[in-house]
Amino acid sequence: MFDDHLHVRQETLARQLFALKQGLDTLCSRSPPDGRAVNNPQAGVPRIYTTYITEDKAEQSLRFLRPLTERLPQPLLFVTSADKLVKLVVGNYGTEVHRLLAKHQFAPALYGQRCLESAPTAYVMEFLSPPTLKKSGWVTLFDFFKLKDEDLPTRYANAIRIALDHILDVMQDEKMVHGDLRPNNIMLEVIDSGNTPVCSDEKQGVKLRVVDFDWAEMEHDRRLVQEWMSKRFPSMY
């Protein structure tokens, strides 16, 4: 560096070196002590939601890992580091309907939410993971109805109808509606990747969970369910 009797250049360089040193110290303090690389989320995963407020008003940390599906250019569903699911919503979301059905185990548990100015609201809920060879999991009724073994959905049609009636009765008793109760918004628990439904008790039939409450309280559900069920299983009507 050329001599500078006013020490302006020296002071500027000193400030920059000091800032660089602070940045390096911060990075080192966040690295694991054994030198392993930090498991950062992949590109395209939201980073502005660092915490969320639970249903009992406590603040919990939140870290997104990956989109639920890689096929969408702008995903709104994300899996977190705690095996939870986050849904980003712009506009209406039927929180009360979700809570009601979750209370009766007809929807994923709702853990909390995070509201940020000029950003979608993040709703944190139970992740209904897909089935594996060794563990039961969840598929949509839409996918279940598309199985190559067409006899399987038919065998469980009545059990599905019983479970759907229970869900509709719960909402009707509280004068609430889901608004978009179609097969792609209803999850069915299956035993394994063979897609055999998990049966609960005789009264419920199969285990169903309702998802996607964006249209809650906007339409009538029972008519919508009867419409697509009668098309899929005409002999029942």
From TrEMBL:
Residues 1-237 form the Protein kinase domain. SUPFAM superfamilies: Protein kinase-like (PK-like) (SSF56112). One of its GO terms (molecular function) is ATP binding. InterPro entries: Kinase-like_dom_sf (IPR011009), Prot_kinase_dom (IPR000719), Tyr_kinase_AS (IPR008266). This is Protein kinase domain-containing protein. The lineage of its organism: Eukaryota, Fungi, Dikarya, Basidiomycota, Agaricomycotina.
